[in-house]
Design a protein that fits this description.
With 738 residues, this protein is an alpha/beta fold. Helices cover 30% and strands 13% of the residues. It has a 6-stranded mixed β-barrel. Helix 4 crosses helix 6 and helix 20 crosses helix 21. The structure holds ligand MGD (2 copies) and molybdenum atom.
Length: 738
């Protein structure tokens, strides 16, 4: 999220595309509605008429998986009518000319043909959004769960840059994140392709963390098969099953078949191709679930040995720092001690480390951080917080500390809800120190890329992350000088370039920082503090890049979903080529798309999303009596005309057939929320497997109050080309009365 939720109050126009905050982010929705009361126009683009759509000023139905084509259509009109911010592009964006070229290929008629949104509506949205100063853009999973998910997340900031809406209050691209700490878990490297703080997997990064963890780099190497595997992306949440089921994938995992699975904090039935996941689980030597509830996937297992359910403490029984959707960190206090024999997650990991024989190394940094405060025993999670804030300098967490975070949490009333600014002792700070927070004097950064305020007030340009010069020889630096800065655009700060950037270091300071960069410091923050004194943002002041020269799609391109309802468009807008070794699995794209005429056999577009009463797989909420009562049954929304055509009445049980030879038994709910060619189902149920009731699989006394088929038993094959996020926001199915 570039801005924050309170900041919506400054928006004149809020464009919500692929998110349903009325259901999934009710607190954010309050801010959006307040902005509406203050005069902002709310516009929703969604394949389904959602509760958010119902609250909006304007709602437009889009065919799922076609958002890129919509934006190019809008840009076509915006560019032709000169409604864009030329100066912003010239100064701050590399490669925007390529976007203009691509947009010229999308006449509004073509955009309308692909998306299903009428021509006059595309023109209307484009004109009104371009006229609103500023406009905010919100998205969430409606954009990411596609093969082109990453391209979706690139075209939206590109649109905002054409409109000059980046780096401004009330503007930006605002992604409403999922679980309460999903931002924190990605900052902490829940992803298999990075180290904490998005450091890459290179030797330099590993050496950086070896220092902060107080272990030898060679010892870290010895934990892997070899150095090459240490620097190779791991399996993703979505791809591990192929490392069990598919001989041909095993070569990507150093020739080793996966043998064990430890699940800690995922419901797992949330991943597409549930049937394959079940089969993979049952082929492993060992399966362990660490969860306060009986994990949903465990119920699907047919194994009778070596499956363990370890009781985890819940969030009420643990404490620590969590990151909110806007990059603010918050301290969370323990409400009660863990009940019965359950353990906090870190205790479970410590027990594992003990048995694996590396507990001492695992905990060493905790003891070292305790020592710095004159203690001989570490305190959890305070000393772990010190480890992560001191090591994660790439995105600027080093200005945070458990003391600062606790002080903010204990003084909520001292912060403004719209601007996040503190009062009294917190004057000048922003609530939760949204990163980057570069030093213990830095206030945090509430709005990204605002280069009109000094860096010590949260100002910054775009990050210089891909070199100083593009492959075609253009400077990647911004011509803008931040207020009080010693220079205009510049590279990331390092000991080597400090002097040339006007950063003054004494001889002693030079010795302290020798060989380091802003991201690789250890033991002191001198280089960064001196850069701040010179008015410079440590990670450089550069241009955004609209052209990602090292990616397959250098600019975002519309590609028809693998399983598209518009079979007539799949050759004009074909999928990516198949991708070998994608998070260690060989993933199909185009070959799957043309394997057969999918839409003939499976004529209906399959959408999925969420219910307000349930969370994720629903493991927790379906075990809560009153929530189970509010939403007690899995259902599939079908348009009445389609239902009539299929001979289905409201409340009938139907079979939904997926494209992977699976089916699900679900109650039909007739609804005009979906269009005639689409059905929608919530992702919040599990416990019924292709018609088979699994209630007797729960250990005695642990069953959820309500169970139902999982949407992922029938969701289609398909993965984002960069992240391997499953394509669960479109796909095909066939429906028959049961
Ligand atoms: N009550 C509740 N709240 C939750 C959750 C929950 O399970 N229950 N889950 C949390 C989590 S983990 C997350 S990630 C968030 C998710 O929050 P959202 O992303 O808001 O959730 P969804 O309902 O999955 O999808 C949003 C919308 O995207 C639309 N959509 C589908 N395909 C497309 C498309 O191709 N284009 C466009 N423009 N729209 C499309 C869907 O119709 C849906 O209305 O919610 C969080 N909040
Ligand atoms: N078809 C379809 N599939 C989807 C989506 C969709 O829109 N459509 N959305 C996707 C998205 S965005 C997401 S985020 C996923 C959500 O999928 P998951 O993250 O898999 O869903 P949750 O049910 O939230 O899973 C959390 C699990 O952690 C457990 N848990 C809770 N607290 C703790 C704790 O403190 N410690 C431990 N160890 N465990 C704990 C819970 O009991 C639960 O079993 O679903 C994805 N799948
Ligand atoms: Mo999510």
């Amino acid at each position: 999220m570039t801005n924050h939720i309170g900041d919506m109050m400054f928006s004149k126009y809020i464009f919500i595309i692929g998110a349903n905050p009325a259901v999934n982010h009710p607190v954010s929705m309050v801010h959006i509605l307040r902005a509406k009361e203050a005069g902002a126009k709310i516009v929703v683009v969604d394949p389904r008429f959602t509760k958010t759509g119902a609250k909006a000023d304007e709602y437009y139905r889009i065919r799922s998986g076609t958002d890129i084509a919509l934006i190019y259509g809008m840009l076509n009109h915006i560019i032709k009518n000169n409604l864009y911010d030329k100066k912003f592009l010239e100064d701050r964006v590399y490669g925007y000319e390529e976007i203009i070229k691509e947009a010229m290929r999308y006449t509004i008629e073509e955009s309308s043909n692909i998306t299903g949104i009428p021509v006059k509506d595309i023109i209307h949205i484009a004109e009104e959004m371009a006229a609103a100063k500023p406009a905010s853009l919100i998205w969430n999973q409606g954009l990411t769960q596609h093969t082109v998910g990453t391209s979706n997340t690139r075209i939206m900031p590109i649109l905002q840059m054409f409109l000059g809406n980046m780096g401004k209050n009330g503007g930006g691209v605002n992604i409403l994140r999922g679980h309460d700490n999903v931002q924190g878990s990605s900052d902490m490297a829940a992803n298999p392709d990075v180290l904490p703080g998005y450091y890459n997997l290179s030797e330099t990064s590993w050496r950086h963390f070896a220092k902060h963890w107080y272990v030898e780099y060679d010892w870290l190497v010895s934990r892997f098969k070899d150095k090459k595997m240490m620097e190779t992306k791991g399996y993703a949440h979505s791809t591990w099953k192929f490392g069990v089921l598919d001989e041909e994938n095993i070569q990507n995992n150093a020739g080793t078949k996966l043998r064990a699975l430890v699940v800690i904090g995922s419901g797992m039935t949330s991943v597409s191709l549930l049937d394959l996941q079940k089969k993979a689980m049952d082929k492993l030597d060992l399966v362990v679930f660490v969860d306060p509830y009986v994990n949903d996937l465990a119920i699907y297992s047919e194994r009778d040995d070596n499956l363990f359910l370890l009781p985890a403490a819940s969030q009420m029984e643990s404490s620590g720092s969590v990151a909110a959707t806007n990059r603010s960190y918050q301290w969370r206090s323990k409400v009660m001690e863990p009940l019965f024999e359950c353990k906090e997650d870190q205790e479970v990991l410590f027990e594992f480390a003990k048995r694996f024989g590396f507990l001492e190394e695992f905990q060493r940094s905790l003891y070292e951080n305790a020592k710095k405060e004159g203690r001989s025993e570490f305190i959890w999670p305070e000393d772990a917080t010190t480890e992560l804030t001191q090591s994660i300098r790439s995105i600027g967490l080093q200005g945070m500390s458990y003391k600062r975070l606790k002080a903010h949490q204990e003084n909520w009333h001292m912060f403004d809800k719209v601007t996040l600014e503190g009062k009294g002792p917190f004057k000048g700070e922003y609530y939760g120190l949204p990163w980057p927070c570069w030093s213990d004097k830095h206030p945090g950064t509430p709005v990204f890329y605002n280069d009109s305020i000094p860096v010590m007030r949260g100002g910054m340009g775009f990050r210089v992350n891909w070199g100083d010069v593009s492959p075609d020889g253009k400077s990647m630096f911004s011509p803008h000088r931040l207020p009080n800065a010693s220079v205009a655009g510049h590279s990331p700060v390092s000991a080597a370039n400090a002097e040339s950037l006007g950063i003054k270091l004494t001889k002693e300071e030079q010795k302290q920082v020798e060989g380091t960069t802003y991201a690789l410091g250890f033991g002191n923050n001198t280089l960064v503090e001196k850069a701040l004194e010179a008015g410079l943002c440590p990670y450089g002041n550069g241009k955004a890049r609209a052209v990602v020269w090292n990616w397959y799609d250098k600019i975002p391109l519309h590609r028809e979903p693998i399983h598209s309802v518009r079979g007539d468009l799949v050759d004009k807008y074909p999928q990516f080529p198949d991708k070998p070794n994608h998070y260690r699995a060989n993933i199909k794209y185009r070959s799957r798309q043309i394997e057969k005429d999918w839409v003939k056999e499976f004529p209906i577009n399959l959408l999925s999303g969420r219910l307000v009463a349930h969370m994720g797989t629903g493991t927790e909420t379906r075990s809560a009596k009153y929530l189970a009562e509010v939403e007690g049954e899995m259902f599939v929304e079908i348009h009445p005309d389609k239902a009539f055509e299929l001979g289905i009445k409201d409340g009938d049980m139907v079979w939904v057939y997926g494209t992977m030879d699976t089916r699900a038994l679900i109650k039909a709910k007739l609804s005009y929320r979906v269009d005639v060619n689409s059905v929608w189902m919530p992702q919040n149920f599990s416990g019924l497997e292709q018609g088979k009731n699994l209630l007797d699989k729960y250990p005695q006394g642990t069953a959820a109050y309500v169970i139902g088929e999982s949407a992922n038993m029938v969701s289609s094959y398909g993965y984002d080309y960069n992240t391997a996020c499953p394509e669960t926001k479109c796909g095909l199915c066939r429906i028959e009365k049961a």
